[in-house]
Amino acid sequence: MDIRGSICALATPFAVDSSLDLPAFGRLIDHQLAGGTQAVVVAGSTGEAHMLEHDEFERLLAFAVEHVAGRVPVIAGTGEAGTARTVAQTRRAAALGADAALVVAPYYVRPTQEGLRRHFAEVAEHGGLPVLLYNVPTRTACDLLPETVQALRDHPAILGIKEAVATDERIHALAELARADFVYLSGDDGTAGKAMLAGAAGTVSVVANLVPQAFRALCDAATSGDRAATAHAHGRLDPLVQALNCAPNPIAVKAMLPALGLGSAQLRLPLVELPDGPERARLREALAALASLAAVA
Predict the structure, then answer these.
(1) Which of the ends of the chain has fewer CB neighbours closer than 10 A, N or C?
(2) Which of 108, 134, 194, 254 is catalytic?
(3) Rounded to an integer, what distance in angstroms lies between the CA atom of residue 235 and that of residue 251?
(4) Distances (CA, A) of 126 to 32, 156, 158
(5) Residue 101: which region, alpha, beta or left (left: phi > 0; alpha: psi -120 to 50)?
């Protein structure tokens, strides 16, 4: 399975009554495919996975699989705090037609490195889908270290890792672990270009929800090793990427969905909408400026 390049962690649009807005979700998927996105993640962190009921997860994923219709891989976010629950969710995703599972390190429980190794091995062994490891310590309170990743990469059902730790040391450590059968993907928009120039095969992106074409241009430049084109693409994207940091993901990205006709800004508690003010204005300006640049190009 070729999972690389520009990958969008899809937001989950909700109607004003907080129900799933599947027509808007379809428009968001179409926006991604038209913009050159090379794979999509359904029900990840950006998709408010932990606010979805079991039947909603199934409806959302089944809709995405049918709507994408094999044009790009559909990756399901299946990580839970417990191993048995993660295996069950991964099996559910497999039955619904997902191509792979993005499995976040178990959150809140703070396992040891041996616990993490055994957790991911168990999911890979019994979940029924190829697994992408996902390390994001700011959300999980544990860090999947490169040496543990190295111990896991020989498992035939483990495809690679999405790494959100964006230090130079971590980027280079993960790049050294990449090989033909184990892909390293960046999980941080702000350092995505740097990571791909260092050896990451792509990026799982939040900002791609809004500007898939511009993010694909960054990925194409960086994965081909073109440093000048990467710097240019990064410079265009960076004001919007920085503006999105004004609130925990996906609050800010969902604030801009209505401007693109891709759904409401509705979130589910405990997340709340970005209020009107300077941060929302900065987001609007950065998105409009990027749209203007795209029109000129």
Answers:
(1) C
(2) 134
(3) 23
(4) 31, 12, 12
(5) beta
Cβ–Cβ < 8 Å for 259, 240:
no
Rounded CA separation 207/242 (Å): 10
Can you say whether residue 70 is alpha, beta or left, with left for phi > 0 and alpha for psi between -120 and 50 degrees? left
Please classify residue 16 by burial: count the beta carbons closer than 10 Å to its beta carbon, then call 0-12 exposed, 13-18 middle and 19+ buried: exposed
Q: Find the largest Cα–Cα distance for the chain.
A: 52
Q: How far apart (Å, rounded) are the C-alpha atoms in residues 40 and 93?
A: 14
What residue type is 203 in one-letter code? T
List the catalytic residue out of 108, 162, 194, 254: 162
pLDDT tens digits, 167-218: 999 999 999 999 999 999 999 999 999 999 999 999 999 999 999 999 999 9
Q: Quick one: which of 120, 126, 68, 121 has its CA closest to 97?
A: 68
Enumerate the β-bridge partners of residue 133.
Answer: 103, 161
Neighbouring C-alpha atoms within 13 Å toward the C-beta of 156? 2
All residues at 6 or more sequence positions from 194 whose CB lies less than 8 Å from its CB, including other chains = 168, 171
Q: Average per-residue pLDDT in the chain?
A: 96
194 annotated active-site = no
Amino acid identity of 65? V
The residues facing 213 across adjacent strands are none
- Check whether 220 has a pLDDT greater than 50: yes
Cis peptide before 270 (omega within 30 of 0): yes
**Does the predicted model carry a pTM greater than 0.85?**
yes
* Structure tokens given for 22: 């599947």
Coil, strand, or helix at residue 75? strand
Instruction: Answer whether residue 296 shows pLDDT above 60.
Output: no
pLDDT of residue 216: 98
